[in-house]
């Protein structure tokens, strides 16, 4: 006999059968109106998810995939909504991957809020959530595998977070092999990571289509990030200055010397409390640092800086 565990949470009802949970939201517009239910299926085990997705693929349904580490915000939800508009079934994963944290303290302090994340996804119309425990991903231990990422692993995020992109590739390869999506949705905020994943997809000889969606920002310009939850009130006031520095560079890049623009931005950011790891202007397709600009090329300005104990990254496209 199947037994159901029923838990009421805000507007959601969870029905669990074994390792599979169906999540319903109940919306009541007026007391006289009928109730509307929307559902999302939550999988904990790869085998259960695989069986379900095989059924969908047998029906030639297009599957969109949004991989995340949780602590969801508007940027993540925009990826889900993009997938909902372009595919038949949207799958989201939540897994905080320890292999991509080169700083143990960063991993230990990464914000976790599973219940809130589940509600956000369900309300956004996500069809499937894969939320596995750590031992479900690599049950026999971490695989000893090295991905040839070339220069991408040696500059910017690769330089300051050694091993980070290898950890990203290990989990993304695992998830892509499991979900086998038609389309993969990524956010521009992690721009270098999007290039790494494109390289990974080539190495996998996968035909998944990658869509990179614009960075979602707060009203003050701050790029939405899970790590913003760790900023204190003073840091929250200062954090938008990171974006303002990028805008100033973009607005002046074709009229001023690159070196002086970068130095001015770094000096100002550090004078108000940031510790800048890098601030660079690079070509958009391969992240080759630019010494001078060509009005016929497209560029991106990237920055990573600490504000207190919180590391923030951002970027801004500069297109002709």
Attribute tags:
320 residues; alpha/beta; nine-stranded mixed sheet; 11 helices; 25% strand
Protein architecture, described:
- The N terminus is likely disordered.
- The strands form 2 sheets. Strands 1-2-3-4-7-6-5-8-9 form a 9-stranded mixed β-sheet, sandwiched between helices. A 3-stranded antiparallel β-sheet has the order 10-11-12, covered by helices on one side.
- Helix content is 35%, strand content 25%.
- A hairpin with a 2-residue loop joins strand 1 and strand 2.
- The N and C termini lie far apart (64 Å).
- It is built from 11 helices and 12 strands.
- The chain has 320 residues and is of the alpha/beta class.
Write down the oligomeric state: single chain
Overall average pLDDT:
90
Backbone CA Rg: 21 Å
Uncertain runs with pLDDT below 50, 5 residues or more? 1-11, 25-36
**Total of DSSP H or I helical runs spanning 4+ residues:** 11
Helix content: 25-40%
* Span of the ends, CA to CA: 64 Å
How many β-strands, per DSSP? Answer: 12
Task: Return the structural class.
Answer: alpha/beta
Q: Give the overall silhouette.
A: globular
Largest sheet: 9 strands, mixed
The strand line-up of the biggest sheet is 1-2-3-4-7-6-5-8-9
In short:
Helix content is 35%, strand content 25%. The chain is of the alpha/beta class. Strands 1-2-3-4-7-6-5-8-9 form a nine-stranded mixed β-sheet, with helices on both faces. Strands 10-11-12 form a three-stranded antiparallel β-sheet, covered by helices on one side.
